[in-house]
Amino acid sequence: MKIVIVGAGIVGASVAYRLAQGGAEVVLIDAVRVGGATSSVTYAWVNACEKLASEPYYRLNFAGREAHARIAAELGGDDWYPRPGVVQWQDAEAEAGGVDRTSSEEKFHRLQGWGYPVQMLDPAELRELEPEVDPASYGDRPVILYSEDGWCYAAQYAGRVTAAAQRHGARLLIGRVARLNIAGGRCAGVVMEDGTHIAADHVVNCSGRWANEVLGNPADHLPLKPTSGLVVYTAPAGIGLTRGLRTPSVNLRPDGAGRLLLRAGDIDKLVDGHRPASDFRDQAEELMRRARALLPALRDVPIEAMRIAIRPMPADSYSAIGPIPGITGLHMAITHSGVTLAPLIGEGLAQEILRGEEMAQFAHFRPARFYSGVAA
Ligand SMILES: Cc1cc2nc3c(=O)[nH]c(=O)nc-3n(C[C@H](O)[C@H](O)[C@H](O)COP(=O)(O)OP(=O)(O)OC[C@H]3O[C@@H](n4cnc5c(N)ncnc54)[C@H](O)[C@@H]3O)c2cc1C
């Protein structure tokens, strides 16, 4: 079976690997390079603990964590998937005033009941684990430790997994897909920008935020609500922090070679991913100010780089994985939390396309829910 995958981000690379491993003749196409788009500008926390609003979505992401562990064990991924743990505390006033949808206590108990590796730490225990974090930032309240959580160096992962796909015979092609070749309700391949047709029995659209440009026909478009995100890299800091910190003011984590990576949800609302990151210097400095309040050792550490990206986000915020009704030979794999979900999407689509066996975790997340007359 010949399969074309459009987009070699973390999602497309994962799909290419599992399909090639399963015996398909795979062509993986990217307009720019492997892992160079949203997958290179991401916080990349591999987690399900932030997905409590919907149990099926939590279960999907939990399975994503497990699929990460599998592919890391299979391909030697300890260097792209460190799991030192992530510590979280919430805003005391917000919790007391019931502003947070879920308090730390509630969150802990719900996650524990759902089988997540989670612990409550008292402040003295956190001081021992991460002595460089200013205790004033978490005060006298217990914090949550996601003891087995970590993050994925997504571009590194995409490169290694693409190389593994190539060892199974996959071909990597750098070039822009102008459109899918869809006629009579069947997708028969892709048409490249230079006019070349590449025929396929099946196409998987993994082009992230560009999914609809690749789809072409507006009637087939997937409703998207892309959101922008700003990430800031510190200069190499030479501090001892090992875990990720999820705090009311800023999320930060080590990013290799002594750098820290910073982001915050409220700052993301102030930026526009269609503009250059350099337009948002003030917002980047604000992230840095918040990070220094947590980690006084960052006092003289400057910003080394700032990057901006647009998240591929289906309109209801959940994943869109599977066929579009009325078109055979085409699957979509468009999602936020794509770093967490990529290895599972690879496993699931290979199982569905090569063996016709549906992946149970995808059932709530089919693109069909967006197309009129088709039940979710
Ligand atoms: C600030 C921020 C923080 C995030 N934090 C997290 C997090 O903590 N945890 C998590 O799991 N997720 C997180 N995400 C989301 C995650 O990064 C994305 O869901 C994921 O990177 C999407 O991967 P992808 O492969 O679908 O898309 P991309 O990496 O964008 O890949 C799509 C590829 O398609 C190619 N392409 C596009 N059009 C064409 C064409 N016409 N022809 C050929 N190729 C084409 C592009 O060149 C690109 O390489 C975050 C995102 C952002 C921006």
Q: Roughly how much helix do the residues carry, as a percent range?
A: 25-40%
Q: Main β-sheet, in a few words?
A: 8 strands, mixed
Which topology of the largest domain does CATH recognise?
A: FAD/NAD(P)-binding domain
Question: What is the highest CATH level, the class of the largest domain?
Answer: Alpha Beta
Using the 3D structure, state the CATH architecture of the largest domain. 3-Layer(bba) Sandwich
Q: What is the molecular shape? A: globular
The order of strands across the largest sheet is 5-6-4-14-15-16-13-17
- N-to-C span: 29 Å
Count of discrete structural domains: 2
Relative strand content: 15-25%
Model regions low in confidence, pLDDT < 50 over at least 5 residues = none
Cα radius of gyration in angstroms: 21 Å
The CATH superfamily of the largest domain appears as FAD/NAD(P)-binding domain
Small molecules held by this entry = flavin-adenine dinucleotide
Average pLDDT: 95
Query: What's the helix-strand series?
Result: EHEEHEHHEHEEHEEEEEHEEEEHHEEEH
